[in-house]
Amino acid sequence: MSRRKTITVTVKCFSSARELLARDEFQMDIPEGSTIEVVEQEVRKLSSQLTNMPFMLALNMEYPAEGTLVKEGDELAIIPPVSGG
C-alpha cells in the first residue's frame, strides 16, 4: 500500500485571517500535485469562520491562475478583503 507523498508550504496570515487563526504564519502539509483550489479548501477547513469568509490566496506574492500547481517550499498568503475609508 503506497502513501501519497506530501509537500510542505508556508502560509502567511493577514488582517482578519491572522486574528481568526491567531498566528502570522504556519507550515502546512498538502498532497503533492495539489492545485491552488485544493489548498484553499484545506485552508478553509482550519476554522469554521474561514469556511464562508471571502479571501484570496496569493502564491509567491502573485495571484495565481486557476489550476496552478503548488510546489514544495511555496509561500502562500491568505488575503481577506480590504476595506478602507
Given helix and strand content, the structural type is alpha+beta
Strand segment tally: 4
Strand order of the largest sheet: 2-1-4-3
CATH architecture: Roll
* Distance, first to last CA: 56 Å
Order of helices and strands: EHEHEE
Helix coverage percent of residues? Answer: 10-25%
Counting DSSP H or I runs of 4 or more residues, the number of helices is 2
Q: Kindly report the CATH topology.
A: Ubiquitin-like (UB roll)
What about the largest sheet? 4 strands, mixed
Question: Average pLDDT across residues?
Answer: 92
**Shape category:** globular
Cα-based radius of gyration, to the nearest Å: 13 Å
Tell me the number of structural domains. Answer: 1
| Name of the CATH class | Alpha Beta
The CATH homologous superfamily is termed Beta-grasp domain
Contiguous uncertain segments of 5+ residues: none
Topology at a glance:
Layout: E1 6-13, H1 15-21, E2 25-31, H2 36-44, E3 56-59, E4 75-79
Description:
By secondary structure, the chain is α+β, with helices and mostly antiparallel strands. It has a single domain (6-79), classed as Ubiquitin-like (UB roll), CATH 3.10.20. Helices cover 19% and strands 28% of the residues. The radius of gyration is 13 Å and the shape is globular.
